[in-house]
Each structure stands twice: as C-alpha cells, then as structure tokens.
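Protein in question quoted for reference:
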Amino acid sequence: MVNTDFSDTARGSFRVLFIYLFIALMFMLSLANIPLLGAGIVRPAFLLIAIYFWTITRPSLLPLPVVFVIGLLYDVASASVLGLHTFAFMVVVILVRSQRRYLLGQTWPVLWVGFAIAALILNVIQALVFLAGSGHMPSLWLIFANVLVSALSYPLAAPLMIGLNRFLTVAKHDYT
C-alpha cells in the first residue's frame, strides 16, 4: 500500500531540505581562503566533506547529476577552470560509491582516512590541471597543506552531519 499521508511527505522533504542547506553552507565555507604561514593561501575542502559524507550515508540525496551541478556552480563561484571541481567531485563520488558497502561498516577513523584520500585526489587533480595550464607544478607544500587542513576539518564537520543524518532518519511514532 502506498503511503499517501501528505504530512509524512512534507516532514521528509523538510528534513532533506536541511541536508541541502548544510551542503550550501559547506559550499560557502569552501570559498574561504585561509592564510597559512609558509604555505600561502589554503582552501579547505568543506564542500568535499559534505559530498563524501552524504555519498556514503545517503547516496540517493546526491545523484551524479546533482554532484555535477554542484561542481559546476563551485567552479563558477571559485573562478577556477570550468569543469575542474565538477570532474574531481564526480571522480570522488564514483570511487566512494564503489567502496560504499565497505565504508558503511568501518569505524570513524577509517572514514577519516578515506576522506583524507578523497582530499588528496581532489588536490592532485587540481595540481595536474594547473600543470597542464601553466607548464609548471604547484608547490608540493601547498598541496600537502591543503590536504592536511581539509583532513583536519573533517572531524569538525562530521558530528554535525551525523546529527543531521539522525534527524533525517527519525522514525515515525503513532501516539493515537
């Protein structure tokens, strides 16, 4: 039997809206440049944190076309090469989805290492595009600093996303 209760649908949509608002917040945070002594300007991959986490826990919320649009919007907003983050996010999503069953059963530190690998993939793709466009490799220290700051940002955002995931999965209680 199909559930036709509009209030359940509205509640579910309202919960999912919070997830997308959180992704939008992470999008905005990802645009911030952070000066780091000795490394120059780093840009933590907050948006990648959200994409990585929700690809593991709720892949239906981030189908590939949505990830594509998010990547394109980020490329435009960050004034980077059009398609760079789109491609990088799509690669990460495809890799994470291929390992999703394994990652779902893992402890939090393993997920953290997985995110650090995703951040490394993102930064290597960015470095290769920079190399192709300019003819010289960006500073390895800058790449390392970006990966490190992004990886250290994951423990700050993960509890918020875990809470949102719990909020999203609240069971329906019938008290009548």
